[in-house]
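User: Reviewer 2 asked us to show a designed sequence for the structure in our supplementary figure. I'm pasting the structure tokens here. Could you produce the per-position amino acids so we can include them in the response letter?
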């Protein structure tokens, strides 16, 4: 299993350079808007940056507060039973990513830019 965020990105085929990486997120499409599965008031708009100022930095917590992102197959699997699934592509700064010790393919971050 990957031990560092760079090993994680290489293992799962995440596109990245030294500073930024592109991940995916399963969201719901409701009334033409892309919204979080957990909070329908948390909307994702292409071209905009979303910030979660209270991102949990504890790597011991698998599902702490933050914007959860993943490799593409994890996102597809997560929302596979939703009738309103949409997959968004997001970019984040690598140094803002929290990789839980026992991740199953998702990580969290405090900030993403919605690419598409």
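Assistant: Here is a per-position design you can include in the supplement:
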């Amino acid at each position: 299993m990957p031990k560092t965020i760079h090993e994680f990105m290489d293992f799962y085929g995440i596109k990245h350079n030294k500073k930024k990486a592109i991940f995916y997120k399963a969201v719901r499409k409701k009334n033409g808007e892309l919204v979080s599965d957990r909070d329908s008031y948390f909307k994702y708009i292409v071209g905009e940056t979303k910030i979660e100022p209270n991102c949990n930095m504890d790597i011991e917590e698998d599902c702490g507060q933050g914007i959860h992102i993943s490799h593409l197959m994890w996102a597809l699997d997560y929302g596979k039973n939703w009738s309103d699934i949409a997959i968004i592509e997001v970019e984040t700064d690598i140094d803002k990513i929290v990789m839980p010790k026992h991740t199953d393919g998702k990580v969290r971050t405090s900030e993403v830019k919605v690419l598409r």
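For the response letter, you might also mention the following. The two ends are 29 Å apart (CA to CA). Strands lie at 20-30, 33-35, 43-44, 49-51, 67-70, 85-93, 97-98, 106-109, 111-114.
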